[in-house]
From TrEMBL:
Ranges where the Peptidase C39 domain occurs: 66-199
Coiled-coil regions listed: none
Pfam families: Peptidase_C39
Identification of the protein by name: C39 family peptidase
Length: 279
């Protein structure tokens, strides 16, 4: 009896290893194939795991997505604290908003429906970090070698983003509304509001690098390409449009009643198209 049990256990173990039964991550993509002994098995020849994730996850990698239209300041500060300072816990935007309301100029915050750099400085000081708002040239921003909150005026709005890095003529920022985006240097200088930046002083041993550039940040569309193609309507030759219209129309067999035509009296196919007229 013991020999039978031991043999069954060995068979189960061998089958388990042969079929590679292991826990699979939720993001794994599974392939199904028809087993054909005449060809190499795809499963036998390919063992790597393929993982997929929504593009929005990478777009907002390391960024706290602002919860309200007026909360870019609190979301940018939360992003900077979580991504650059070695806190004991990961902060939520709501916690930072509560802190800004408590230590900032509450009446002015309610009146203007936004947070200022002074509000940020007071809250950051309350949790034990030195910080400050400064004005400087673009070269000063780059030389800091650390992320900073910068105000920009973009698309008709005043907005807070986190400056991440400058590389090869482009400025990379963490935008609480749009995610990880970049501007060319000239464009960034145009929208940078008052050349202002907000820095948090963090000792090297207490820094994080969650806002460091990654390969995915380098994938961007040049501004010239966007300007050239973004609003261009696709144009097709007229004969191709007529062909499409004919295929979607009703065909009717009619007699040619034009006496001046060479095919007078012949039966011809006519395409009856539908036209819509605006009132």
């Amino acid at each position: 009896m013991l020999e039978i049990a031991l043999g069954s256990a060995l068979m189960y173990y061998a089958a388990k290893e042969a079929f590679d039964i292991k826990p699979k991550p939720a993001e794994a993509v599974y392939y199904t194939e028809t087993l054909d002994s005449r060809n190499d098995s795809f499963t036998r020849m390919h063992r790597e795991t393929v993982q997929v994730k929504p593009a929005i996850i990478d777009q907002f990698r390391g960024i706290v997505h602002q919860a309200y239209d007026y909360s870019c300041g609190s979301a940018a500060l939360t992003t900077l604290l979580n991504g650059y300072t070695n806190l004991n816990a990961t902060l939520t935007e709501q916690q930072v908003m509560d802190g800004l309301m408590k230590f900032g100029e509450t009446d002015k915050i309610v009146e203007r429906r936004s947070f200022s750099l002074l509000d940020m400085k007071r809250f950051v000081s309350a949790i034990g970090f030195e910080s400050g708002g400064y004005r400087g040239e673009f070269s000063d921003l780059v030389k800091q070698g650390q992320p900073a909150i910068v105000p920009i005026s973009y698309a008709g709005f005043k907005h807070f983003v986190v400056f991440k890095a400058y590389k090869n003529g482009r400025v990379y920022v963490a935008d609480p509304a749009l995610g990880n985006i970049s501007f060319d240097e000239v464009r960034f200088k145009e929208i940078w509001e008052n050349n202002t930046l907000f820095l948090i002083n963090v000792a090297p041993e207490n820094r994080k690098n969650l806002l460091a550039l990654q390969d995915s940040d380098m994938r961007h569309v040049e501004d010239a390409t966007v300007n050239r193609y973004a609003l261009v309507s696709m144009q097709y030759p007229q004969f191709y449009m007529d062909k499409i219209a004919d295929k979607a129309s009703t065909i009717r067999l009619d007699k040619n009643m034009n006496e001046e035509s060479d095919s007078y009296g012949d039966l011809n196919y006519n395409f009856l198209r539908l036209y819509y007229k605006n009132k």
